[in-house]
Amino acid sequence: MLEPLTFAPLIKPRVWGGRRLERYGVTIPDGAMIGEAWTLADLPESIPEGRSVVDSGVRTGRTLRSILRSEPGGVLGDAPPAEDGGFPLLVKLLDARENLSVQVHPTARYAKGHPGALMKSEAWVVLEAEPGAVIYKGLRRGLDRADFAAHAQAGTLLDDLVAVPVKRGDCHYLPSGICHALGAGIVVAEIQTPSDTTFRVYDWGRSGRELHLEQATECIFSATPEPGVESRPGATIDSRNFRTTRLCSTPYFTIERIELRKSAQLPLTPSPSAVVWMVLGGTVELTGQGGPRILTLGRTLLQPAAARGSALHGDAGATLLRIELPNERDRMLAETHA
């Protein structure tokens, strides 16, 4: 029987990164600037250091991919795997000390016609935001393909981007094909489809990094709306012990924020598919199968579909993200509209 799994973060130096992820349990080498920590990853073998390794319990030292190969139904349940057979989500922490490049990720349609490009839709849950911080999300209305290409080549694309002020607790969904950038002074949890394919269109004057204007233009102007997306926070449900808010619902994942109103136990009840948890506030203890284990800020836990008999305990103020995978029908609906 599979117990809940935790993994060693995979750290990624980035020119725009910083050191704030140390507050989220990420060990950063002296002098390094880390932009990303992948807390749950199972990318194709062609992507270096893209597969999480279990760091506690009886499966310590095993990759998530090896566990999936030996017990696919036990991990995923009814949820479909990624196209290459891997886990269908990538979960990260991002520290934007500086602006990220303005970029676009492949749509499913683009990826089907371009081997090696992987579709990416993502959501950002804002963990920290300095005063005045913004993200860039989409292009101004009326901008056509020719003007976009001309402005990107001239380096004046910034005037065409929609700047959105953000604060702690916000959630923004960024479907594949949207032009976007994470602004300076922001830390986010990123939940996305398993892809590391990025097409840059503007890099804030930094030199030495390639731009991909042709690919980005094709993705932006051929994108179609994804079905069944609810990207604004839904209703909040208050109970005696918990406050639960639906942050985002997409064909690829659903995100809820759960806040403990008092010291309480949150049973990890059987689920038809795998569930991913991330600690956003306070300290949480895993008990039962796979425990006892202390989960601190930023820690990510995978609850396999076959896991039974575990619970999370936290004091008042502890906060978690609960990320649920879709079923096969939801994924087929998304692919039909790709």
Give your account of this protein's structure.
- This protein is an alpha+beta fold.
- It folds into two domains: 5-222, Jelly Rolls; 236-336, Sandwich (Jelly Rolls), CATH 2.60.120.
- Helices cover 14% and strands 35% of the residues.
- It has six helices and 22 strands.
- The chain has helices at 64-70, 72-76, 108-113, 145-154, 213-222, 328-336, and strands spanning 5-6, 10-18, 34-40, 90-96, 102-104, 122-129, 134-139, 161-165, 171-174, 180-182, 186-192, 199-202, 236-238, 242-249, 254-260, 264-267, 275-281, 284-288, 293-295, 300-303, 310-314, 319-324.
- The strands form five sheets. Strands 1-20-17-22-15-14-13 form a seven-stranded antiparallel β-sheet, with no helix packed on it. Strands 2-3-4-11-6-9 form a six-stranded antiparallel β-sheet, with no helix packed on it. It has a four-stranded antiparallel β-sheet with strand order 16-21-18-19, with no helix packed on it.
- The longest helix is centred in the middle third of the chain and has 10 residues, at 145-154.
